[in-house]
Model the fold of this input.
Amino acid sequence: MFRNCSMEDISDGKLYDINDMARLGCNDCQGCFKCCTDMGNSIMLDPLDVFRIRFNSGESIESLLQNKLELNIVDGVILPNIRMSGADVRCPYLNEEGRCSIHEYRPGICRLFPLGRYYENGDYRYFLQKDQCRKANRTKVKISKWLDIPDYPEYREFVLKWHYLLLDLSEKMKTLQDSDVRQLELMLINMFYIKVGAADEREFMTEFNEKTVMMRKLLEEL
Done:
């Protein structure tokens, strides 16, 4: 979730905004799906990712956690991630042709790759991770086109709220007893991933914002 390293070690050294161009074009990944295999627990899912998968697939969170998702501790916080499986340890949403079967509603981290986010002063910019995408001779693509995210300003606000909530939650947990930490972890999973009653994405965003306020109030009281 949070990497303690220099930008020079992991990127081309540049920071990009949404309307900048970066060498991302990979000819639609034809003949390649390396970034969808053997990724461990690194494909972490935020609440919007899980809501979109549930909404579009019709699967319950309980069903997803049985075969396609799993929970792992990341920086002291329990979060869901895509479960790699099979002989070639691949994403369960990769079809027989090596193409993403949920591409239309793929998780944010998949939309981002091979970009990363660099958070600073309550905001973020993008960086291009080096030595991640195996495609050679990538072409320049506008980042907004690469991400293909409708209503980007709202999505950006969501990403920032979630990131800084997790950051503050992780710091708060360092000061608490184990029993209180477990209680907070369960509350986070229940509030943001399991007990989600929204019927569409608009309702989800409203619900998410309300729950974020509730969680921040709780952290202030602890």
Notes: The first strand starts at residue 21 and ends at 25. Residues 152-173 form the longest helix (22 residues).
